[in-house]
Amino acid sequence: MKDAFQREKDERERMGRTVESCPFRTNYHIMPPVGWINDPNGLCQFKGEFHAYFQYSPLSVHGGGGYWGHCVSKDLLNWDYREPPLASDIPEDINGVYSGSALVEDGRMYLFYTGNVKLPGDYDYIDAGRISTQLLVESQDGQQMSAKEKLLGMEDYPQDITQHVRDPKVWKEDGVYHMVLGARARAWKEDGSRQDKGGILIYSSPDKRHWTLERELVPQKAFGYMWECPDIFRLEGHRVLSFCPQGLEAQEEKFQNIYQSGYSLLDDNENPEDTFREWDMGFDFYAPQTFETEDGRRILIGWAGVPDTERTHRNLTVENGWQHCLTLPTELSFREGQIFRMPVREIHELGWEKAETKDGGYDWRDCTLKLQVNDLKGEAFQVRLGTEENAMTIRAEGNKTEISFLNPEGEAAACGGGRGKRIGRVSGRIESLLVLVDSSIVEVFVNGGELVFTSRIYLEKPDRKLQIQGGGSSSLAVIKKA
Ligand code: FRU
């Protein structure tokens, strides 16, 4: 791996474009050291430190997999990167060490993941040509892994399930281990044409090694054709299913991205579509995973990206040898019948300094920004990040928030890489906004996390301005970094 990696690096250096010199590197978000990142995996707190693994393609800025990356942190915001601890190196995972999760028990870390195999040949890779195996490794330090053990193979999935079965999330409840897997079930419309259905499989085990199918949850009426990255957890007495349905039809103010990511409450309604809510209304959010901290908080980290977006928008980091990052870790709470999502409290303990705006403006060139706006009472408010010609504008009024890269003529600003606009609404009126900007990523939290927007933004340093207009009381804090 090192040779190919070095060759790629030499080539970029020759062209004067390096990851290190890229102005879009972030300060507090998990990024690929080089190449591509997608889903967060194996999130956990282990022996006092936070571990985040991730789908990682160091050899290609366009993905394709091959590794789990690994980083470690004491505060969930400053991360140290380690060597990739898992690679595609056995027959069961030769085409991908796909997503999975961690379980910490008795001072050991257990990592569950999917081994992906795509047989060479003319296959559809849905009904034929793919092998999805659920695997386990153990570790005492989070870095050195035991031999890979096969837990479940194609022979263990129900008859109606296609070859798409992946992303094990494992938890322990009442002395029993449970594993939820995302799946694509074979199904047909009344006219006989194929219309597959997304769903989940839940297995249970007394010992983490022998697994029995407990439940297959595939809705009567299709809600997307495939569900990826499922996660089941309890939050303040509620049973939550988080998952990523693919194939939902876009509506004007819902399901605006190519694939969705949201949650349903499994309390007393077993049809996930009825209670489904999107986790995030921005352009760049998918495949989140949650974990519980030692102090009992439920934390969620998502991928600040979406698969298969090459045709709609771009990331302007590609030519510098890297692509995508993860979201800030957010803490979940349950209020007013839904989940609220706010950045972890550790964010406020970073070295923030109060900053004064001049006529509502501020030049943030080398800063990480925190803009808190209170007392909005539904009045019109907007903040522009960028210049008049090249900006993202965040507008809030009544119950509606919009983030937009479009100018009055409807043309898309360069800093969005082709992104247009996204809309979301709160149930009452907008009272507050928290906007966090870390170089090339913006996260907007409306009404204390009732609604969240995550988006990448690619402003060169001279264009990094901010302009506030409208109601409420705003306070700006910054962290200066050269
Ligand atoms: C979601 C996903 C997962 C899979 C992984 C492969 O983005 O497609 O279902 O395990 O990415 O990288």
TrEMBL record:
It catalyses: Hydrolysis of terminal non-reducing beta-D-fructofuranoside residues in beta-D-fructofuranosides. Belongs to the glycosyl hydrolase 32 family. It comes from Candidatus Egerieimonas intestinavium. PROSITE patterns: GLYCOSYL_HYDROL_F32. Coiled coil: none annotated. InterPro entries: ConA-like_dom_sf (IPR013320), GH32_Enzymes (IPR051214), Glyco_hydro_32 (IPR001362), Glyco_hydro_32_AS (IPR018053), Glyco_hydro_32_C (IPR013189), Glyco_hydro_32_N (IPR013148), Glyco_hydro_beta-prop_sf (IPR023296), Suc6P_hydrolase (IPR006232). This is Sucrose-6-phosphate hydrolase. SUPFAM superfamilies: Arabinanase/levansucrase/invertase, Concanavalin A-like lectins/glucanases. It is an enzyme of class 3 (hydrolase). The lineage of its organism: Bacteria, Bacillati, Bacillota, Clostridia, Lachnospirales.
